[in-house]
Amino acid sequence: MKKVEVKLKNGTAEGYEIQLPNTRLVFVLTKQGYVMCGYLDLTTADKVGDIAALVRGVNTVEELLKAKVQGVSAAAKQLGVEIGMSGEKALEKML
What we know:
4 helices; 6 strands
């Protein structure tokens, strides 16, 4: 597991890259929510009330920050996180 400090305009977040047998799990956490790769489930995030955004096709935290958001939880939508914004911009909204 690799932990990466992510410096954003309004603060910092913690990024994680976890090597699994056939793929890599990538996500970045703020105090309020997270942006996750497609390996994790947006339906579950909604079910538990998490502030979450989904990006796909990323293997590193750096790629996650640049990737376009493809899905958002209801709680993230309330914060202004939108489909099409970058992972980095979504994280800024979660700070």
